[in-house]
Amino acid sequence: xxxxxxxxxxxxxxxxxxxxxxxxxxxxxxxxxxxxxxxxxxxxxxxxxxxxxxxxxxxxxxxxxxxxxxxxxxxxxxxxxxxxxxxxxxxxxxxxxxxxxxxxxxxxxxxxxxxxxxxxxxxxxxxxxxxxxxxxxxxxxxxxxxxxxxxxxxxxxxxxxxxxxxxxxxxxxxxxxxxxxxxxxxxxxxxxxxxxxxxxxxxxxxxxxxxxxxxxxxxxxxxxxxxxxxxxxxxxxxxxxxxxxxxxxxxxxxxxxxxxxxxxxxxxxxxxxxxxxxxxxxxxx
Length: 285
Prior knowledge:
Blueprint: E1 2-6, E2 9-15, E3 18-21, H1 22-25, H2 34-39, H3 41-48, E4 57-58, E5 64-65, E6 74-77, H4 82-87, E7 99-101, E8 107-108, E9 111-116, E10 122-123, E11 126-132, E12 148-155, E13 158-159, H5 160-164, E14 181-188, E15 200-205, E16 208-214, H6 222-230, E17 240-242, E18 264-269, E19 273-281
Parallel strand pairs: 6-17, 8-14, 9-19
Antiparallel strand pairs: 1-2, 1-5, 1-14, 2-3, 3-4, 6-7, 10-13, 11-12, 11-17, 12-14, 15-16, 15-18, 18-19
Family: Belongs to the FAH family.
Pfam families: FAA_hydrolase (PF01557)
GO molecular function, one term: hydrolase activity
């Protein structure tokens, strides 16, 4: 199943530009509130298997928002691909990679404009994103996927100047400017994927590919990552988890490469679609 956020309304996709409005089709039982939908994900999935697909609605890309617009938490992980660990100059470890938050006010849909902060060194990081469908705390590795509603694409956009140029390393604020956490274009359940543990992901700037890897290159695979984080943190239905980026970020290039106003960032993951961000000059510049 694929489910999109169309003008705030959960919509089961029947095509790339059409689908079934959940609230209307369920006579209000599901779809009125995204958080409630994820808290009832199991019963909703059972209902959705028999939904009548004759009454479709049409939509455009401009109507799409984040497929989880009301997360309690956005959890993110850095240095979770060995190739990215190497390009960043760190040593790989079997200890849980750095884990941090991107504040919910930075969350956006798949196709948005992103303002480049004044004097910003704005970097890109394409990532597989998980959306939680069942409360997860101290989850066993073998049970981890049962707590995931589905997956989607995310960009962990970061102002590296704010992150590293000051007296202290900052993890959360440089990643939480408005629209610095675009997610989408829709949620895809794991049963729709050829291999949920081995998906190709790419990132391009104005058509030039800058990242090209596979999720099988993760140090902590999805199930192990969720299990390990849940040893400490309780994850709630609708929560969003970024799982790390592979090699090819701007900070590691020689010379370093930063996103500029007028550039278009395209991110794609196999089986999940793609999303695009246009970078614009900040009004405060």
